[in-house]
């Protein structure tokens, strides 16, 4: 009869009994694998690798907040001019940089991109360090007017030689802060989805 086996009552068995064990083992392996894969996916989505927390972003100029803010004492609003009133804090223009660097460190090699930008009239292409997804709306002006300190989200930039993303910027992190508004700032909690998703 080839690969079939006779059973009591004359019905032929198509597969050997060991196949039942193999099928059960395969199903359990798939189930356990799916659980492990889910755990790994959730853990990696909350990891620094995924959120970008602690990561420095390459910039056209090696700008040091530790020097400019911590050492010299330049206020955030000098470079990020629209932070008080608009959603986007703004990036420093070449003119802002040249206000000082037309007189200080005029031949420094690291400032060559600033001088080239000034000479050819093309703006520097700063890269955002704290960059939320397009589906999340964040208004710097509203946060500054509510007296939320810059360091709440950006960390102690006055100590950063290279600016890194200080917070995970995950939805959970933002929601936790919004839920804590009454305790921290004496403001009503803002937990409506439309606050950030418009």
From TrEMBL:
Gene Ontology molecular function terms on file: electron transfer activity; heme binding; metal ion binding
Start and end residues of each Cytochrome c7-like domain: 137-198
Domain (Class III cytochrome C) ranges: 55-104
Top-level taxon: Bacteria
Keywords of the record: Electron transport, Heme, Iron, Metal-binding, Transport
Parts of the chain that traverse the membrane: none
Presence of keyword DNA-binding: no
Protein name according to UniProt: Class III cytochrome C family protein
